Amino acid sequence: MKRISVLIVDDITDTRDSIRRLLQFEDDIEVVGEVGSGSEAIIFAEGKRPDIILMDINMPEMDGIRATELIAQRVPGSSVIIMSVQGEQAYLRRAMMAGAREYIVKPFTGDELASVIAKVYEMDRIKKEVMGEQPKVFLDPKKRNGEIISFFSTKGGVGKTTLATNLAVQLANTGKWRVLLIDLNLQFGDVAVFLNLVPKRSIADLIESGPIKFSEIQSYFLNHSSGLQVLAAPTRPEYAELITAEHVEQILSEVRPNFDFIICDNVSRFEEVGLVTFDIATQIWLIVAMDVPTLKNAKLSLEVIEGLHHTPKVQVVLNRTSKEMGMDPRDVEKSLNTKISYEIPSDGRALVSALNQGVPFVTSYPQSKASEAIRTMAGRLTSSEIVDPKPKQKEQERRIQSPIKQLRRVFGF
Ligand SMILES: Nc1ncnc2c1ncn2[C@@H]1O[C@H](COP(=O)(O)OP(=O)(O)OP(=O)(O)O)[C@@H](O)[C@H]1O
Ligand SMILES: [Mg+2]
């Protein structure tokens, strides 16, 4: 008799061990693997196609809900069962909408778990027999369901725009993904300056012009040489008030089916436009730095985000790490009581000159440690390895502008 193959996904090793133990005497169930994050679950599922995936919700890097959504799209033959704790109803509803087949509330007994596994396996076996195994769909270009990442921080100047622009360019540079960067720093957005783009059209022009439909929205995109598309912030601060949270919600729902990644750069305070991106986003990246005031406010923000039931979407990104800060990333984890998903080293030389030249550092300084960190982010987001495009480097460096040209362009002198 074929045994039901099961993958266990949970970031806590002890939990994985105890689930494995619960299932060890079940003759018709075989645990074929265990992994500690959503992105590893996707890679495993694509390779081994287990019958059942037992998925935790709250995990660093990629939470269980997003992983479920991607597995449902890419490996429809594997059925996801969500393992939740009491009180996670809001997450559960989202998980079921993302494509989970069933859920089980922790703590559970071996019998309870085995019977849920058997039930889901049986239901899906019948469904597969009737419908035949569906073909693998990998980001069908006709029906994308973009990852929406909302960049947030509690303090200005911690590096949201720097990281958002470089990550977006890195993703677009691979040539495999459609990427949109939306500047929601509506008063003083500087994404266009970071990318050396002339903001001929902005989100304010779009709102003024009429229906917010994708066919209309796309004519307001600015095109970056990497292939990235940008919806720029208004050119003047007074236009910011034209744009409401409802507009942003509508824009995001219109663009989502047309992109693989949509990155929103926000302001550093809780306000309506940012909060609506939190609701729609698949990930919220909280950018923090190694200083006590930032960390104190980051801790408060995490509490607010928890009150909004968005905790599973949060990734903490520690920017400007340096041994000279008198603080260790592990101290930051302890004080925030949460894991850091990504660390970006401080690299003033590469970053400031990249900024003055209007060329993202991932392009102008691909060998810098900061670029390496961005490639790690992009690699994890796409479940692939992204390497340093060394051969192209010389050509790109030749294209770098002088800082004075960039000043002239921005200020028009
Ligand atoms: N890893 C880093 N190493 C060195 N400098 C950095 C790093 N990250 C960001 N910076 C610098 O910090 C400054 C502020 O960055 P940035 O404008 O991206 O912050 P922000 O969070 O978007 O600010 P705001 O909230 O005002 O929009 C820039 O000059 C940038 O070059
Ligand atoms: Mg900014």
Précis, in short:
The protein has 413 residues and is of the alpha/beta class.
The name of the CATH architecture of the largest domain is: 3-Layer(aba) Sandwich
User: Spans with pLDDT under 50 lasting ≥5 residues?
Assistant: 133-143, 391-399
Instruction: Quote the average pLDDT.
Output: 88
Please report which band the strand proportion falls in: under 5%, 5-15%, 15-25%, 25-35%, 35-45% or over 45%.
15-25%
Helical amount: 40-55%
Number of strands: 13
CATH class of the largest domain: Alpha Beta
- CATH fold-type name of the largest domain: Rossmann fold
Instruction: Calculate Rg over CA atoms.
Output: 22 Å
Can you summarize the main beta sheet?
8 strands, mixed
Determine the number of helices (DSSP H or I, runs of at least 4 residues). 18
Description:
The protein is an alpha/beta fold and 413 residues long. It has two domains: 4-131, 3-Layer(aba) Sandwich (Rossmann fold); 147-411, P-loop containing nucleotide triphosphate hydrolases (Rossmann fold). Helix content is 45%, strand content 17%. The protein has helices at 13-23, 38-48, 64-74, 89-98, 110-131, 160-173, 191-194, 203-209, 214-217, 245-255, 272-280, 292-307, 329-336, 348-357, 361-364, 369-382, 390-398, 403-411; strands at residues 4-9, 29-35, 52-56, 79-85, 102-106, 147-152, 179-183, 222-223, 229-231, 261-265, 283-288, 314-321, 340-345. The chain has an eight-stranded mixed β-sheet, sandwiched between helices. A five-stranded parallel β-sheet has the order 2-1-3-4-5, sandwiched between helices. Helix 12 links the parallel strand 11 (283-288) and strand 12 (314-321). The longest helix has 22 residues, at 110-131. The chain is globular, with a radius of gyration of 22 Å. The protein starts with a strand and ends with a helix. Residues 133-143 and 391-399 have low confidence and may be disordered. Magnesium ion (MG) is lined by residues 160-161, 185, 265.
